[in-house]
Structure formats: C-alpha cells, structure tokens
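My current task is to audit a protein record that another person submitted. Alongside the sequence sits a line of tokens, each denoting a local backbone shape. Where you disagree with what is written, explain briefly why. This is what I was given:
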Amino acid sequence: LPCYVLDGTGGMEWTGAHLDERYIPHEKNPERGYIATANADPVGVTENGDVLDGVDPADRADDFYIGCDFDRGHRLARITERLEELTTAGGITPQDMSELQNDAQSPFGRFLTPAIVTQLDRALEERATPGTHPDLSAAVTELASVMDRVSDARDRLAAWTSFDTPAAVEDSPSAPEIADSVAASIFNATMGHLMRLTFDDEYDYFHDGELDGDPRRSNGAGTTMIWMLQDPSSLVGYDADAMDAVYWDDIGTDVVESRGDRMLRAVAAALGTLETTLSSTDMDTWRWGLLHTLRLDALVPVRLLGDSMDVLSIPTPLDTTYPNGFPRHGDRDVVDASGFGMFDFFRRDYGSGPQQRLVVEMTPEGPRAVTALPGGNSEDPDSRFHRNEMELWRRNQVRPVPFTEAEVLAAAVEHYRFVP
C-alpha cells in the first residue's frame, strides 16, 4: 500500500484483479439534492486511523484499499455548508455556484482564532494582575514592551467574525474588507510562528537526517493543531495532569510551556514579522493582498539574469503594477484554493489553485457554461490569448463558453486549416 512499507516476501503483490464498481465510492441522486467532492476522504476510511478496515466491518469493501492520503476536509466541509444554505433557500442559479467557487473563508481562522483570542485575554489579565495566570507570567514579563500592540492585535482578531480573507489592495476596498484583510494577515503570520513554536522541537529531536524531505510539510501538523485545541484528550500526546497536549511544551527548555505561552509568543513574533515585511508599524496598512500573491509560471520558462526571472510568467517580475505577483484572497484549505505550506508564512505565494472556473447549467436547449482560465489558451507570449482571461480568473469572474457550432463560429476570431 502507498501508505506503508510492505512485506517483500511475496504476499503483497497485485493479483491483477480490478475492484468491482460497487466497491468504488459513489453516489447517485442523493436525497440531499447535491454531490460535493474536494479531495477529501470519500467514505470515512481514515476516521479511526486504520485505512485497511473500512467503515463497516460487515461490508466486503473492507477487503479493499481505497486510499490514505486525503485532503484534511475543510474545503469539502465549507462547500457542503454553502450548498446546504443554497438548497434550503431553493432556486440555485449558475451565479450562486460561481460565488461558491469564490468563497475564501479561512477554515483554520474559523477553528483557531477564538482559541488564540482566549489566550490573549488571559495574557492581558496576567499583565493587569500579575500571578493571575502563572503559566503566562514569564512571557508577559518578557514581552512587556509589545503588550499594547498585542492588545490591538487581539481586538482585531476578535472582530474577525466573518473569517473572510480579502486582498484589500485594489478597487477601493470597504472598511469591513480592510478590517478582515488585516486580521487575515495577523492570523496567518501568527499561525506560521505558532506551528514552529509548537512542533519544531519535536521534529528537530526526532529527525535524524535520514528522512526524505521535511515532515513538517505534511497535512498532519495542521490536523494535530486543531485536535490539540478541540479535543486534546483524544491525542496520544495528552497530559492528564495538565489537561492539555504535551506538544505545547518546548522539550529543549527546563520549564513546561503552556498553550497560552506559545500563542502569546506567536502573536508577538507575528507582529514583528509583519512590521518588518511590510515596513510599517501601522496595522491598518497590513493588507493580506500585499503578502498573499500569485504568479503563474510558464510550462517551459524562459529565464533571464540567471535563474531569477521567468519572462513568460504571468505577471513577469518586470510588471510595473504587480512585480511581486497578483494580490489574492484566501489561505490554507479555502474553497477557492490558494494555500501555502503550514509552516511557510515566510513564503506566502502559492502554486496550486483552480485550473478553471467552470459552471455548467443543463437546460432544455442544451448546456450553458461559463468559465475562466488562469492566463489563457496559448503559451505564446505574443498571442492575444496568452493572458486574455487572467483578469477574469483572478477577479473570480467568468465568460460564456460557446457550445453549439453556431456559437463557436460566431465567436471565432482566427481560423486554421490543417491539410495532409
């Protein structure tokens, strides 16, 4: 199996048989009125940590391996939530589906921000009345010079109730969009530091130099963080005396650090990172779109100045408006996929996202579709179709797709004839 080292003595070879269709996860006309997928575990085979025992021990599907490396499931959960809202309201339109594809609510922000705010409240109580929370006394004392800034960040995170992640650097953003954008910057910077403060000591201790790659890039760290906050007692690393996960503690120190200590220090470090990166101490200027950007690399890059510049990328590094890439909303595991590594706040651009924004409506007259491509249909930088859809795609807009012969001919701007 792809997830495990297999016995090589002869009992693990493929038999040549193909899985019967009835054992392949599928749905047909479910009563809820929709089918949603997003690379997540389709039938719950990973829920108990054993991908070989299936969901129902009485079901022969348990004899078959379906998979093990699935998405964390946050995108599917949000898509399902939105579809439930739409189906309850009734009258779903293609525009509704395009707007759903545009959803950029931060699932990690939604899960983790309340916990961070709670710990910042404890830290501020400790500052006001020393000894109230002994686990925070050392950190509050060390960070005394920035606690007013921490308090400001706390208020901005507490007000971030939409958990939306707008770029907020173009088109005269509204005050709520700016507030959400700043909160998204603070949260994501905090997450980068929090993940390292929490897990780097364990990874460094157990990493012996023989692992292929950095295990911190796996999905497991993000999932573990959520369990640490939602249900720490379910983890192997649960400390019954502390009533919390042991992973908050830095095993390289002589004291036992708490979740509050880790979160307070992560926020303080995040504020320093944002001040340095954006060259500003004014939090209102910390727009997420200045940090979270997208550049589309060419399939066959043409580089100048050594390897530093791909002149076929969109936008190129020479673009006077977007030299660092297009500002984008979103973060890890949002519906409009735009995530970056869980530990990689210092590289906030991203390389995987929607390859088109396609919505199709089946009508009595035939399919009616809209779409937008990231760039265009041509890799030729001199072609009018090299990046003609880039503005539509990055702004989450779409164009009609010609479908019938008459529609295609009416939309044609060039004709090619191929002869033997």
User: Anything to note?
Assistant: Strands lie at 238-239, 244-245, 293-294, 303-304, 309-310, 326-327, 359-363, 366-371, 399-401. The longest helix spans residues 175-206. Residues 107-290 form one domain. The chain has four domains: 21-92, 107-290, 297-327, 359-411.
